[in-house]
């Protein structure tokens, strides 16, 4: 290979951005497009690594001004306490406004029923979509990445949802160059995915590069867990362990953060970001395959839930 | 040269972070083996993980298939699996120690031309597959024409199924020659032809043991080494203003920054700039690269410009060097690809999005439609239907600073939007293109017939 003078260290040609810089720049462009074109955008914030990276990018996109978006947390009622604690600290530190859509409220009011398997993931859709309607949010940022799942690989960066928040994969707008089309009728909204082109490894490398703080559950720690459907679940009031399931103390960490009833931990001794990256790079399982029970329900589980309005 | 199959786990965080990103698209007819090639690139670069492969094996077995069907890795929607075809563009991700890749996996059917246009619009490279037994066919010419139209900088011709023609050098040679001649005529700047067998893995990731006569790179080696940056010395610098950042805080009472992603070229502190369409000029007093001050910034960095004077600037304006400003115009002539189901007709009132500005516009004329098969022009077709490519004249309600698409893919492109329901109607490329080498003659003006 010919050697050429470099401006940016680490890249092989002048003016080429490193892949993380290119992804960061693209995501910032998406945040600014939404700020420029929508009236009431909101960032879906779960306290998981993807939404944390989204917020970090939004902070950079509008610095030194504050982020012009509120946060929306869909609270399943089965949260990891460390994650709620993290959420509240972030909101206070950056002077943000937090909206909460609560699954527990819907269950208490009798609108939603607890499922026999105890998982509340599918129950999130109604509180989320009703909150979007009542608050009249017109752009809803999600941390979804196309590398997560094959239905998500077909998702646009700007994804139009009808008044029922439904996704119709056959009626998607073509997305050309970086000319995002955010037009929507009253009642409709647009889901926006600034991390579309990021992979799990990109997210972790970016967290390492930027020194972003994460909830402790992402790093190896001792925890009381029990085995169900081939995954280590955290014991708790939400419905585990049942008879025949035994609790044991194990060194584990989480690759994703979601409802406790269906998010599994993995055996790990990766207690630093560097070790986590090394572990992911060597892993032969995707993060969803390793830790999400709900995606295993059927071949098109994600597509079906997305159609209904799930993120 | 480093081995391309080195697994990523041997690399440090620093090494992994320093790689560049290549966006590329694939194009091929239904049975050219595109899914197999994509599957092999993903599989051999170790980007298919065990649970994904197991899911494919389960699904294949439940359909009664003997081996795992790698096409199921890429066909993500119910309708696609039911019909066994790819309907929509899907984006896939894989990495080698040298580079990260975003692959726009586009369907090959004629009726999905718009999807190939979508994939090619952001691609720096297109892989066009042909079946070695069939050579250059109509669909190959169509794909080459779209790559040329979208000005994809690098084109790879992958001559697949070489195993079925006895790995014969002369078969490859004549296909490569025919294609290169055709593509060059279209204005494609660079063609790299590679003989492969996607099924057996010849020249995809590993060099082939069957084709000693071929001395070029494998597909992956070429993807890893093709240059992704441009010669910015000859680029017109352009910054579409996305958003004005005004903290109005105690800490930053007077901060007023113009945020945007540099569409082309470079900007430097101290440089004299002009704001379009107003035409007011001032100098750059500072550049913030996401919170960090820099002296120089270039495409495609997202930046915030600070200016010496308080000029009235808002979203939709274009900042350019004063010495290199594009003309502004309300009459745009462009080559377009119509991407919506409802047709585009003369007199159609639309919205035009160019950079960060959306303006009202009207379709004044559709001078011609391109027949992709033989690149002939059909004059005054009256309308453009889904997947049609043609020439369109648009009058905008406000003057726009447009570049020729040949000079700048970002500031030379636009989309047309239906104002009634927001549908994205048409993808436009400003200026001349290979599709209009000569002025179009209107057949109705011919006076050769006199009854």
UniProtKB/TrEMBL annotation, chain A:
Catalytic activity: sulfate + ATP + H(+) = adenosine 5'-phosphosulfate + diphosphate
GO biological process per UniProt: hydrogen sulfide biosynthetic process; sulfate assimilation
Record-annotated Phosphoadenosine phosphosulphate reductase domain positions: 41-264
Keywords annotated in UniProt: ATP-binding, Nucleotide-binding, Nucleotidyltransferase, Transferase
EC class name: transferase
Enzyme Commission code(s) on record: 2.7.7.4
Pathway: Sulfur metabolism; hydrogen sulfide biosynthesis; sulfite from sulfate: step 1/3
Entry-linked SUPFAM superfamilies: Adenine nucleotide alpha hydrolases-like (SSF52402)
Region (Disordered): 288-311
Keyword Transferase: yes
First and last residue of the signal peptide: none
A GO molecular function held by the record: ATP binding
Origin superkingdom: Bacteria
Annotated HAMAP family: Sulf_adenylyltr_sub2
Quaternary structure (record): Heterodimer composed of CysD, the smaller subunit, and CysN.
Function (record text): With CysN forms the ATP sulfurylase (ATPS) that catalyzes the adenylation of sulfate producing adenosine 5'-phosphosulfate (APS) and diphosphate, the first enzymatic step in sulfur assimilation pathway. APS synthesis involves the formation of a high-energy phosphoric-sulfuric acid anhydride bond driven by GTP hydrolysis by CysN coupled to ATP hydrolysis by CysD.
PANTHER family: SULFATE ADENYLYLTRANSFERASE SUBUNIT 2 (PTHR43196)
Protein family per UniProt: Belongs to the PAPS reductase family. CysD subfamily.
NCBIfam families: CysD (TIGR02039), PRK05253.1 (NF003587), PRK12563.1 (NF009214)
The protein, known as: Sulfate adenylyltransferase subunit 2
Biological source species: Streptomyces chromofuscus
TrEMBL record, chain B:
Class of this enzyme: transferase
GO biological process, alphabetically ordered: sulfur compound metabolic process
All copies of domain Tr-type G, residue ranges: 19-231
PROSITE patterns per record: G_TR_1 (PS00301), G_TR_2 (PS51722)
InterPro entries: CysN_GTP-bd (IPR041757), CysN_II (IPR044138), CysN_NoDQ_III (IPR044139), G_TR_CS (IPR031157), GTP-eEF1A_C (IPR054696), P-loop_NTPase (IPR027417), SO4_adenylTrfase_lsu (IPR011779), T_Tr_GTP-bd_dom (IPR000795)
GO molecular function, a single term: sulfate adenylyltransferase (ATP) activity
Pfam families listed in its UniProt record: GTP-eEF1A_C, GTP_EFTU
EC number: 2.7.7.4
Entry keyword set: ATP-binding, GTP-binding, Nucleotide-binding, Nucleotidyltransferase, Transferase
PANTHER family recorded: TRANSLATION FACTOR
UniProt-recorded name of the protein: sulfate adenylyltransferase
């Amino acid at each position: 290979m010919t050697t050429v003078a470099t401006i940016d260290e680490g890249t092989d040609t002048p003016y080429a951005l490193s892949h993380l810089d290119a992804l960061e720049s693209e995501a910032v462009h998406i945040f600014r497009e939404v700020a420029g074109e929508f009236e009431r955008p909101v960032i879906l914030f779960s306290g998981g690594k993807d939404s944390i990276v989204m917020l970090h990018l939004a902070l950079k996109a509008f610095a030194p001004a504050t982020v012009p978006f509120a946060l929306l947390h869909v609270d399943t009622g089965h949260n990891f306490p460390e994650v709620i604690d993290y959420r509240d600290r972030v909101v206070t530190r950056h002077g943000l406004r937090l909206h909460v859509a609560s699954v527990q409220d819907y269950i208490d009011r009798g609108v939603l029923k607890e499922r026999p398997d105890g998982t509340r993931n599918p129950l999130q859709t109604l509180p989320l979509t009703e909150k979007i309607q009542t608050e009249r949010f017109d752009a809803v940022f999600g941390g979804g990445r196309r590398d997560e799942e094959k239905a998500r690989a077909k998702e646009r960066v700007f994804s139009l949802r009808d008044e029922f928040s439904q996704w119709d994969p056959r009626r998607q707008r073509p997305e050309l160059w970086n000319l995002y089309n955010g037009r929507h009728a009253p009642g409709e909204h647009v889901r926006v995915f600034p991390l579309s082109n990021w992979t799990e490894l990109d997210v972790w490398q970016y967290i390492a590069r930027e020194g972003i703080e994460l909830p402790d559950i992402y790093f190896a720690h001792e925890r009381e867990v029990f085995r169900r459907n081939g995954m280590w679940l955290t014991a708790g009031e939400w419905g585990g362990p049942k008879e025949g399931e035994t609790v044991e103390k194990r060194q584990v960490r989480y690759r994703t953060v979601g409802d406790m009833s269906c998010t599994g931990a993995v055996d790990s001794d990766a207690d630093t970001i560097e070790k986590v990256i090394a572990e992911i790079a060597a892993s032969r399982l995707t993060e969803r395959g390793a830790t999400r029970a709900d995606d295993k329900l059927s071949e098109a589980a994600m597509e079906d839930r997305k159609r209904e309005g799930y993120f | 040269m480093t081995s391309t199959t080195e697994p990523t786990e041997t690399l440090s965080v620093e090494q992994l972070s320093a790689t560049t990103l290549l966006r590329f698209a694939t194009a091929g007819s239904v049975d050219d083996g595109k899914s197999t090639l994509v599957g092999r690139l993903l599989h051999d670069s170790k980007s298919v993980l065990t649970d994904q492969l197991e899911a494919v094996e389960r699904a294949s077995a439940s359909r009664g298939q003997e081996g795992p069907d790698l096409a199921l890795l890429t066909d993500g929607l119910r309708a696609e699996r039911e019909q066994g075809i790819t309907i929509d563009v899907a984006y896939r991700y894989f990495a080698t120690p040298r580079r990260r890749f975003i692959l726009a996996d586009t369907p090959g059917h004629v009726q999905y031309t718009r999807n190939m246009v979508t994939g090619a619009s952001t691609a720096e490279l297109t892989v066009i597959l042909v079946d070695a037994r069939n050579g250059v066919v109509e669909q190959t010419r169509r794909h080459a024409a779209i790559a040329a139209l979208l000005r994809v900088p690098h084109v790879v011709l992958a001559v697949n199924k070489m195993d079925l023609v006895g790995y014969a050098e002369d078969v490859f040679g004549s296909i490569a020659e025919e294609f290169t001649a055709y593509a060059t005529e279209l204005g494609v700047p660079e063609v790299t032809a590679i003989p492969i067998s996607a099924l057996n893995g010849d020249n995809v990731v590993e060099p082939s043991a069957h084709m000693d006569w071929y001395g070029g790179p494998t597909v992956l080696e070429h993807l890893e080494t093709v240059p992704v940056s441009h010669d910015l010395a000859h680029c017109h610098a352009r910054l579409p203003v996305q958003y004005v950042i005004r903290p109005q805080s105690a800490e930053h009472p007077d901060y007023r920054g113009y945020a945007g992603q540099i569409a082309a070229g470079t900007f430097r502190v101290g440089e004299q700039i002009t704001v379009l369409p107003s035409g007011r000029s001032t100098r750059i007093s500072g550049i913030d690269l996401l919170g960090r001050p820099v002296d120089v910034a270039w495409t495609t960095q997202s930046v915030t410009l600070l200016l010496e004077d308080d000029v009235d600037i808002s979203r939709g304006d274009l900042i350019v060097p004063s010495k290199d400003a594009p003309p502004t115009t309300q009459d745009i002539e462009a080559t377009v690809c119509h991407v919506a189901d409802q047709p585009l007709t003369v007199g159609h009132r639309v919205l035009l999005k160019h950079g960060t500005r959306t303006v009202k516009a009207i379709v004044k004329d559709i001078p011609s439609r391109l027949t992709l098969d033989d690149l002939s022009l059909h004059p005054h077709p009256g309308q453009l239907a889904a997947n049609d490519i043609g020439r369109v004249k648009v009058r905008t309600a406000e003057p726009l600073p447009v570049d020729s698409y040949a000079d700048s893919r970002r500031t030379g492109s636009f989309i047309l939007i239906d104002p009634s329901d927001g549908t994205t109607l048409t993808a436009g490329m400003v200026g001349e293109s290979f599709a209009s080498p000569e002025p179009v003659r209107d057949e109705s003006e011919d006076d050769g017939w006199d009854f």
